[in-house]
Amino acid sequence: MGVLLESHRTARLLILWASMVFHHQLRDERMRDRDDRAGVRSLLSSVAQYARYGNLRSVLQTRISGGPRVLIANPMPDRGGHSARRINKLLEGLPQNHRYLEIGLEWGKTFENVRAPVRWGVDPAPQFDIKRLPRGVTVIASTSDDFFDRLPAGTAFDLVFIDGLHTFQQAYRDVINSCRVCPDGVLLVDDVVPCDTVSAIPDKEEAMREHRRLGFERDPSIWHGDVFKVLLCLSRHHPELAFRTIVGLDNPQAVVWRRDAHTSVKMADSLAIDEIDRTTYESVFNDGVPTLFHPTNEDDAIVEALATLRAQASG
Predict the structure, then answer these.
(1) Is residue 133 part of a domain?
(2) pLDDT, tens digit, for every residue of 253-308?
(3) pTM recorded for the entire structure
(4) Among 122, 142, 221, 225, which residue's CB has the most CB atoms within a 10 Å radius?
(5) Which domain, by its residues, includes 90?
(6) Beta-bridge partners for 114
(7) What phi and psi, each to the nearest 5 degrees, are found at residue 226?
(8) Does residue 202 belong to any structural domain of this protein?
């Protein structure tokens, strides 16, 4: 295959894993010759990528043992998806890019592919083994509110990715708390533009029931919640923060940063929050993504944020 295997033991594990894959493919009556060939190509491509970054042995051991998922030790930018790609672009251009925090981990696919020496993650129920973590990685199994309440004073991060509970009030608290622990860096907020009214329902189970009732053809697992209201709140009540919304290819996300270094960021009052919470999807997106969301493409959003942060660091 032209792939340099990490060890003789890895080679034996690879043979066993491949045998298992082919066995299950042959037993699956739904598979056809063309699908088999595509599956083999996909398998070999995955093997090559894991070997290239030195992750093949640990991945095979986990697959064969049937144990809980283990985070890969070495980030693989080719497999991290759009979130990891954007995060790594931001990290590469930040004046300080050592410490990363991710809120909402689930399977850890984004988290494990972020290139930062120190990575922290928080999730109430991570879907991977938190007892076997790569060097420099800390994972806290708790809600983000509890995490921030217990975080030691002085703990700071250079970039925070917010992808936790997809509700306005929780995501907004995550933004405010993240600004507190990321005084000189940047935030990336996920799921800020729902694809439709059903995706914007803040309760996931309700959104999926409504999806089935209406017979939508899109993937029913797509759920953004009402995180979009966070951008309304930033636009109306946080002149100290700048943000740009990445639209176009891949999932929309917002890049958020301070207009002036070390500016204090305080939560809006409860009346303002309640008013925004009553806002409907239709009133915001009737004519598409509103201009107050500052929609732009991925590269321009990142370039603008980094230019401001570098100027602040040099000043």
Answers:
(1) yes
(2) 999 999 998 899 999 999 999 999 999 999 999 999 999 999 999 999 999 999 99
(3) 0.88
(4) 122
(5) 77-192+227-314
(6) none
(7) -105, 40
(8) no
